Structure formats: structure tokens, C-alpha cells
Amino acid sequence: MKLTRGPRPPKTTADAFMKARRDILETIQRIPRGKVASYSGVAFAAGWPGRARLVARVLSDVPPEYEGLPWQRVINAQGKIAIPKSSPGHLKQQRLLKAEGVVILNGKISFAAHGWKPGDASPLLD
DNA sequence: AAACTGACGTGAT
DNA sequence: CATCACGCCAGTT
After folding, report:
1. I want to staple A101 with a disulfide (CB 3.0 to 4.6 A). Which of A34, A80, A82, A109 is the partner?
2. Which of A83, A85, A64 is CA-nearest to residue A72?
3. Which nucleotide C1' is nearest A20 CA?
4. Per-run averaged pLDDT (10 residues), chain A, 126 residues
């Protein structure tokens, strides 16, 4: 009898990726209004240090069940909006951030002023 | 299968 | 400041 199609073995890499994506999205949800975090910071806080690129990847295609995710609060380590200036998303992110009180000076945001440190407070409520 | 592409980061020049 | 070279890694060509 040939069981070439038996029970599927766990694809650890893919499973790990799905877990990572969950961790990352949940971490971003905890960034409060008026605060921002870098891609690497989110990766670290999510338990996936060194995976900034993965955060970017996840953010570039947010699952529909995460509607309302404060994606605009994730910026690059230089304090700048990572989306290309030419993209419409750039302006949108800039508008959203300014609307929640984030100061953008010369295209840069001060982490000293708005940087989110996991463990600050008020999750769930923005 | 190999090359290329990012919403990245860091260190060197 | 700006650039470059790398390291990184899932997706796309």
C-alpha cells in the first residue's frame, strides 16, 4: 500500500513564520497613540530579534483580520517613514501620525520624544 | 535553480 | 549629512 500522501508532517519553517507574524502583529497593536517604534524594535519586542525585515514584510501585507492595526506607528531606525516618498502610503502615514500628535521635523521623528518602550502602559486602549 | 527585490539595520568611509 | 557594503530572509521573477 502506498502512503505517499499520508498525514502531512509539520512544516516547521512555515509554522514558525506564521507564529512570528502573529507575534509581530500583536506587538504592533500594543504601540500606544502618539508613540512610534522601529522595525527592529518591534521585532525585538515580539521575540524575534534581528528580524526587522520580517516586520516590514508582514506590514506590507496585513491580513484583513487585523483591520485597524496602527501600522503607521512603525518607522525605521533613522526615525523616518520607511515607505518611499513617491508612494501614496507615505503621505497617509504622515497624516495619521500627525493626527495623533507625533511631531515630524524635517521628515524625522524623535525617538526620545515618541519612542515606545514595551512595558510603558495602556495597551488595548491606544 | 539563480537572481532579484524590498515599509530594514549597522558599521565603515 | 550621503553612500556603500553586508547581513538578513520571504516572495517574486
Report:
1. A34
2. A83
3. C10
4. 49 82 97 98 96 97 94 98 92 97 96 90 59
Give pLDDT, residue A8.
Answer: 45
Neighbours of A77 (CB within 10 A): 12
Strand B closer than 7 Å to the CB of A48? no
**pLDDT at residue A77 in the model:** 98
Q: Is the C-beta atom of A58 closer than 7 angstroms to strand C? A: no
Instruction: Please say whether the dihedral angle defined by the alpha carbons of residues A69, A75, A77 and A79, taken in this order, is positive or negative.
Output: negative
Q: Taking the model in full, what pTM does it have?
A: 0.89
Cell triple for residue A118? 514595551
Query: What CA–CA distances, in Å, run from A67 to A35, A59, A63?
Result: 19, 12, 8
> What pLDDT was estimated at residue A119?
79
How far is it, in rounded angstroms, from Cα A76 to Cα A40? 8
Taking the domains of chain A in order of start, what are their residue ranges?
13-63+70-114
Q: Which CATH class is domain A13-63+70-114?
A: mainly alpha
